Amino acid sequence: MTERGQDRGNGGLAASMSLLTSLLTRPLDPGYEAAARRRETEGAPRRTVGGSALLAVLAVALGVLTVTAAVTLRAPQPAVVQARAVLEEEVRQRSLEVSAAETQLAALDTEIQSLQRAALEASDPQILARLAVDEAVSGATALEGPGVRVTLADAADAGESDVDRRVHDSDLRVVVNGLWAAGAEAVSVNGLRVTGLTAIRSAGQAVLVDLVPLASPYVVEAIGDPDRLETRFAGTPARDHLALLRAAYDITGSVDSVASLLVPAAAAPTLDRAAPLVLEAQEEET
């Protein structure tokens, strides 16, 4: 270091020490100290005991008023409580009405299907047989028979933040696709029918099947020949995926043959578009 550098270093150190010494020996600001001396010189009256007590009473009163105002503002008003109760009761009533309407809709759908079958059975039994096959493939009707049940469950000690140790929507998709590849005739997840239009995805930590949130354990059931399904499923990537989940993340998975399974019908699809039906007779005439 040059002499100039040493001088600048020594000067800065001396200035710092002088400032520290001044703070230790004279903690009061010179301006405040001068005002205090002038007050004593002019003989300004000191604060009396009564004044101090009055100041304390005023401080307590202000504190009480502040707390009272805060509690009053936070407390729910009677009108707000009453309005909330009315809304809650209305939600309950509407939920009951929706449930009743869904039950009535299901009964009407069953009645319509019965009338359609009766009409087709009398007029064209071949169309009725084809309709039964199409309904089974599309998931419009419930199916019952032997099959395979695949159960997936989160790790036993998985916490809220242990995302990797929970079953994901992608895991369910792998299992469902593996069962389809193995020859399953119908598949359901936690009692929800899976068709070609079914979406299995996630929203946060919840797994959704057609917008219905599901929770662990996840039970995937597939109707078909149990021996054939289990053998073919073992040859798909889904079986290796289950082994990986168990070894790496302690996610349990089991594949069991079941003598009788009931796969429910899927929800009625929403009609997006339609086109007029052209009969063969009309085509021949044209």
What structural keywords apply?
286 residues; alpha+beta; Alpha-Beta Plaits; 3 domains; three-stranded antiparallel sheet; 9 helices; 16% strand; elongated
Structure, described:
The protein is an alpha+beta fold and 286 residues long. The chain folds into three domains: 44 residues; 62 residues; 121 residues, 2-Layer Sandwich (Alpha-Beta Plaits). The protein is built from nine helices and eight strands. Strand 4 and strand 5 form a beta hairpin. Helix 4 runs antiparallel to helix 5 and helix 6 packs antiparallel against helix 8. The longest helix has 46 residues.
Give a brief rundown of this model:
With 286 residues, the chain is α+β, with helices and mostly antiparallel strands. Helices cover 57% and strands 16% of the residues. It has three domains: 44 residues; 62 residues; 121 residues, Protein of unknown function DUF881 (Alpha-Beta Plaits).
